[in-house]
Amino acid sequence: MRRFFLLMSFLAGAWHAVAQIQFEETAFLQAVLTHHPVARQAELLEDAAAAYLRKARGAFDPKLFASDKSKSYGGTAYYDYQAAGVVAETPLGISLESSWSQTDGAYLNPESTLPDGGLWSVGATVRLGQGLLTDARRTALRKAEAYVTLNAAQRTLALNDLLLDAAAAYWKWYKAHEAAEVAQEAERLALIRLEGIRSAVIGGDRAAIDTVEARLRWSTRRMEAAAASTVLAQSRAKAAAWLWDDAGRPVALADGVAPVAPTDWAGATVWVTLHPLNDRSRSARWQSHPLNNALAAKGSAADAEIRLAREQLKPQLDARFLALSPTSPIDLGPTDYALELKAALPLFLRKERGALELARIDRENIQLDLENKARKWEAEAYGAGVAWSDQVRQWEAARETEALAEALLDAETVKFNAGESSIFLINSREASLVKARKDRIDAEVAAAMAWRELGWIWGEPEP
């Protein structure tokens, strides 16, 4: 009998040994960041920004043109206009052009009559009023440049959110796995104790009521183990839903794959040392935070819209000057030219003034949003740092509590073997140990998630 209870005492402090394949959190998160559809969507943000920038720059690409216009009626060639050239808009608001024209026909307009062999022209259109400082093309380019920063920041934020959500799924799986292990171990120990009590009752060493107590405890443990297995199956399936392969197909977790508990916070401690919680360091970190970068990029785009709206209030005054030559585009005379002036101004400017006011309101909203999020972020950054440190201390205390509860169960078992204790006290000590183990698991998960939330707050999506 004494040998039986010594064996039971040994099993009370042991975990059920099962061959398992360890799947660490970092490997799990790296797989998510590499293959998850949301991660691939985040990569598309940078591609979209590059395409948008390329499109905006394309507005300044030179354009070749050619035309041929003619009329013939009743056997008479009325006119024939031929032209070819190149025109290009510049980021300075000046349009450059060079062309060659030739005309012929019996009924040409006098102003369209050109020298034999055609006429070369080289010149530019200068916007002296509206369009001098900016225009739609330059505004689109500035917004595209801002969107490159904006999309890069949004990509980081998307990956950051993805990492936090995936980590939450992983640690729920870990908690359920460990809770199931504890419940199964408690069920096995309760069954061993029940068989031992039955033998003791048959041998006259224990009262029959002890069998009822042991049976009740085993029945309760069976129920708890079944419930824990259900939770484990659900959390395991949810964790597997985050995994995809290179071909974009869902990946199932293989049998025997199990999550791994955090065991060393040395690297985390170094990270916190490099990211102090004082006001100055938080303020400096916010300047490079992806959320700040995103809002700053939106502000830059809004500023470009304001400049364009202001420009629309100016009168339109365009001057087009062409130097002419009948021989070549480089043999231009000072007296041969064409000059065109164009001016226009809306009388009331209600549309333009309304657009400017809306652009200013949009910019102010962005600035207020930036100030609000900056203040909120600084408070959350400080709170997350403090919370993580507290969670680590709770985890350390929970580990010590578990060790003490196990020592008390061992001591109570020795007393029980010597006839100085009861089954009720043994069960009470065992219940305390089970609770201490569950509390340790909860503390582990809380510390791990506090660490991930700290990285999420600081905007550093690293597995």
Question: How would the blueprint of this fold be written?
Answer:
Elements: H1 2-12, E1 21-23, H2 25-35, H3 37-58, E2 63-73, E3 76-89, E4 94-104, E5 119-127, H4 136-202, H5 209-240, E6 257-259, H6 266-274, H7 279-287, H8 290-311, E7 316-325, E8 337-344, H9 350-417, H10 423-458
Parallel strand pairs: 1-6
Antiparallel strand pairs: 2-3, 3-4, 4-5, 5-7, 7-8
Helix pairs in contact: 1-4, 1-9, 2-3, 2-4, 3-4, 4-5, 4-8, 4-10, 7-9, 8-9, 9-10
Characterise this structure.
The protein has ten helices and eight strands. It has 463 residues and is of the alpha+beta class. The strands form two sheets. Strands 2-3-4-5-7-8 form a six-stranded antiparallel beta sheet, with no helix packed on it. The protein is elongated, with a radius of gyration of 39 Å. The chain starts with a helix and ends in a 5-residue tail after the last helix.
Give a brief outline of the structure:
The chain is of the alpha+beta class and 463 residues long. The chain has 10 helices and 8 strands.
Question: What structural class results from the helix and strand content?
Answer: alpha+beta
The total of beta strands comes to: 8
Per DSSP, what share of the residues sits in E-state strands of 2 or more residues? Answer: 5-15%
Rg, Cα atoms, Å: 39 Å
Largest sheet properties? 6 strands, antiparallel
Choose one word for the global shape. Answer: elongated
What is the helix fraction of residues, given as a range?
A: 55-70%
Mean pLDDT: 86
Low-confidence stretches: 1-18
Q: Kindly report the oligomeric state of this protein.
A: single chain
The spatial strand order of the largest sheet comes to 2-3-4-5-7-8
Order of helices and strands: HEHHEEEEHHEHHHEEHH
Number of helices: 10
